[in-house]
Design a protein that fits this description.
The structure is a single chain. The chain is an alpha/beta fold. The chain has one domain: Aldehyde Dehydrogenase, Chain A, domain 2 (3-Layer(aba) Sandwich), CATH 3.40.309. It is built from five helices and five strands. The strands form two sheets. Strands 1-2-3 form a three-stranded mixed beta sheet, with helices on one face. A two-stranded parallel ribbon has the order 4-5. Helix 4 links the parallel strand 4 and strand 5. Helix 3 packs parallel to helix 4. It comes from Oncorhynchus mykiss (Rainbow trout). This is Aldehyde dehydrogenase domain-containing protein. InterPro entries: Ald_DH/histidinol_DH (IPR016161), Ald_DH_C (IPR016163), Ald_DH_N (IPR016162), Aldehyde_DH_dom (IPR015590).
């Protein structure tokens, strides 16, 4: 994290407090030097809050309550971003249901930030187009050409 991102993350934390989210832990600078921020958790987050709508790219977790799985998928997709998502559950059927409905380039189930060179990585919507890694990642380095040749017939 550089100074610019450090300031952005602290701005998001301030925004969460200002907009009424409940700061459950963290929320401050973690060291006297460098750009370290305490792991931060907000509860009572509402859909319209900045911290619920933006990609923070920092150690900030937002907790939102829900009633149905359909609501979870709808709310998760109600954003202009779609880089990655994580689903934590003991119920594999729920994990499959939610992951199939999410508009995100990567969905982790019961883990987070796990990558394999064989698996493509990239986002949906404003989170990017194209893919890195895996077979799809080679598309950026490939030029395809079609050559068609008419072969003369023997008795024509």
């Amino acid at each position: 994290v550089d100074e610019e991102q450090f300031k952005k993350i602290l701005g998001y934390i301030s925004s969460g407090k200002r907009e009424g989210a409940k700061l459950m832990c963290g929320g401050g600078v973690a060291a006297d030097r460098g750009y370290f921020i305490q792991p931060t958790i907000f509860g009572d987050v509402q859909d319209g809050m900045t911290i619920a709508r933006e990609e923070i790219f920092g150690p900030v977790m937002q907790i939102l309550k829900f009633k149905t799985l359909e609501e979870v998928v709808e709310r998760a997709n109600d954003t202009k971003y779609g880089l990655a998502a994580a689903v934590f559950t003991k119920d594999i059927d729920k994990a499959h249901y939610i992951s199939s409905g999410l508009r995100a380039g990567t969905v982790w189930i019961n883990c987070y930030d796990v990558f394999g060179a064989q698996a493509p990585f990239g986002g949906y919507k404003y989170s990017g187009n194209g893919r890195e890694l895996g077979e799809y990642g080679l598309d950026n380095y490939t030029e395809v050409k079609t050559v068609t040749i008419k072969v003369p017939q023997k008795n024509s």
